[in-house]
Amino acid sequence: MKNNIMITILGLVAFVGCHQEGVAGNKKEGTPYLRISVDDYVDKMKAGWIGQMAGVGWAAPTEFNYLERIIPEEEVPAWKPERVNQFNQDDIYVEMTFLRTLELYGFDVSYEQAGIDFANSGYQLWHANKFGRENLRKGIAPPDSGHPKLSKHSDDIDYQIEADYAGLIAPGMPNVAIKLGEKFGRMMNYGDGLYAGQFVSGMYAAAFFETDIEKIINAGLECIPSESQYYEMVNDVIGWYKENPGDWVKSWQKIEGKYQKNPDYKRYSCDPPNNPANIDAKINGAYIAMGLLYGQGDIDQTIIISMRCGQDSDCNPSSAAGVLFTSMGIEEVPEKFKSALDPEGKFSHTPYTFGKLIAVCEKLARDAVVRSGGKIEKDASGQDVFVIPVKKAVPSQLQKSWAPGPVANSKFTEEQMEQITFKPALGMVEGLKLFAPGWKISNWGDTLEPGLHSNRRGKGNVYVTHPALDRTDCVLSNEVAVPEGKQTQLNLTVGHHENGDWELIVKANGKELKKALIGNDADENGWEDVTVDLSKYAGKTIKLELINHANDWNHESAYWAKIEIVEH
Q: Which one is the CATH code of 40-377: 3.55.10.10, 1.10.4080.10, 1.10.1670.10, 1.10.340.30?
């Protein structure tokens, strides 16, 4: 990392959370400003993305496996360098939908266009993201798509997970990050759910110019309403840290008592009051702050502490590590976190490789600087330098999901609805009747959008199944009369989810005829042709079963593009 980051502060006006001293400013203009070379900006922004990927990759095996309890030290996964390659991780690629919208339409993109692009996304979603997108697909435009009167998930963690992009393209510009939350965060969240993302993105914006963790956290606080419960939570964590700076478990216990056990702080939780799982943004945001404060700048400890707090234990260390890595810059990041990064790896559901992602973020940051009243100058060596006016953060208005304001009655026009090209899957029974008449289905689950889809992984008319439980197979069955005097075979074209594989088992009258792991031998789009000879059953009627078996309960969707009985 070059040591040419320059921060200029005139008079008593300072960038929130940033108190480094630098080169004297232009007193004639009387405007305080920040300076950072574009090379240094890119190095820090790149580090921020790697931090997200490392945090979620390290902690992914623990997600929601530890509720109302701390992860035992001996159960913390070991870091492996290849874990950084999180190109199929929804905690990473969902935010790239927003970057793509900004790349195509710029910062003045309409709320409606942002909503159309999110509505057309094809990945699996949960909680606030899922219900916000469903509202968009029904014709409810932003900001109502995330309004509490239309979604029971508006205080969930979702925009907090995805807001990293906003700070990474807004170095030293908290108001840019705040406004991006208003445009993209409101598609799925409201109140504390929205403030969670604005807090995180505000920390990123500050981290380009600050290394003191408490100052970075305070900079994030400046981006949200001081009367909100989310603000109260962050202040609590800071206070509890100061009370017990050497014992994070004591602070965790205080968080548990107030933000898990006290119903006043779960007023709009989508989970039942006694449910140990808590997807609310506040308690998970507390675990981000815990990692940052108690990690004290140590990468491993920041990730591990945030992870060991439990609940959404991969998303929280991802945000914490992203902020910390940004403040450090890429050259200060240990080799073990970047040595195995695949520069050509492509993020699922996006047009971006890691290199393309970095280039798009740089372009957007350049636009943001100029739009914010700044400029791009040349330094003595001819390198570009961002000159960024210091502006006080202006938080969004105070809103509470449990006592929301009126809906805006925002709806897409008929013309805009025509641009929402994503077609929801037909139901399991109805879809199977169209896809494979005569076949029946049993023991299916509702995970990963099962049903008949118009397109999946490059093929049209794809039927998607998923087992109901990890020990209960999803089964397609049919009574098949195998003719005499002919060669009869079952032809299948099957595929798998981008993030997992599954085991295909074919049975006739309960006898296993074929077993294959669908994933290893598939083509580049995830498809594989399978043939099973049925000729030995000539003259008999058999019960044929096609089984979607979960081998490791990780994205066990079966994609069926063809099921046919062929006679020769």
A: 1.10.4080.10
